[in-house]
């Protein structure tokens, strides 16, 4: 079975790897920096950005601590990760990736269900 993904707080119609980046960019342009997608198999994909860097997390189910994209060796931290509940988070840059890389990761996960072969991520389980 091919996994399909929907953006949680939008249309129940699935997004594809060809349309997910347009949806993310539109949300960012409208000040919505946190996006959660749910797959037909029950997995969740989170994308939270400050428009320069992004936290990308993939969770197997509701209680799963999941795994997240990383930038090994990155120094410093970045703030401005505005969540939908009003919380403003700051993350070490090592635990986030540049937004362009985050777009590539999300596109690949939505299209294939897995991280790109060359992606770096940390397992939080």
Describe this structure in words.
With 125 residues, the chain is of the alpha+beta class. It has two helices and nine strands; from the N terminus they run E-H-E-E-E-E-E-E-E-H-E. The protein has helices spanning 20-29, 99-112, and strands at 5-7, 34-39, 44-49, 53-59, 67-69, 77-82, 88-92, 97-98, 121-123. Strands 1, 2, 3, 4, 5, 8 and 9 form a seven-stranded antiparallel β-sheet that branches. The protein is globular, with a radius of gyration of 14 Å.
Set down the secondary structure blueprint.
Layout: E1 5-7, H1 20-29, E2 34-39, E3 44-49, E4 53-59, E5 67-69, E6 77-82, E7 88-92, E8 97-98, H2 99-112, E9 121-123
Antiparallel strand pairs: 1-2, 2-3, 3-4, 4-5, 4-8, 5-9, 6-7
* Biggest beta sheet attributes: 7 strands, antiparallel
Structural class: alpha+beta
Estimate the mean pLDDT confidence.
95
Alpha carbon gyration radius: 14 Å
Distance between the termini: 26 Å
Uncertain spans = none
Strand content: 25-35%
| DSSP E strands, number | 9
Q: How many alpha or pi helices?
A: 2
Shape: globular
- Which sequence of SSEs, written as H and E, runs from N to C? EHEEEEEEEHE
Helix content: 10-25%
Would you kindly provide a brief summary of this structure?
It contains 2 helices and 9 strands; from the N terminus they run E-H-E-E-E-E-E-E-E-H-E. The radius of gyration is 14 Å and the shape is globular.
């Amino acid at each position: 079975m091919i996994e399909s993904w929907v953006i949680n707080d939008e249309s129940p119609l699935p997004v594809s790897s060809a349309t997910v980046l347009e949806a993310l960019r539109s949300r960012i342009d409208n000040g919505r920096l946190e996006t959660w997608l749910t797959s037909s198999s029950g997995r969740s994909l989170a994308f939270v950005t400050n428009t320069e860097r992004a936290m990308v997390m993939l969770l197997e189910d509701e209680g799963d601590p999941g795994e997240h994209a990383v930038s090994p060796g990155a120094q410093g931290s970045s703030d401005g990760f505005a969540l939908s509940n009003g919380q403003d988070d700051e993350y070490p840059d090592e635990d986030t990736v540049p937004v362009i890389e985050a777009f590539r990761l999300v596109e690949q996960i939505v299209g294939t269900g897995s991280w790109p072969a060359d992606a770096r991520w940390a397992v939080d389980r």
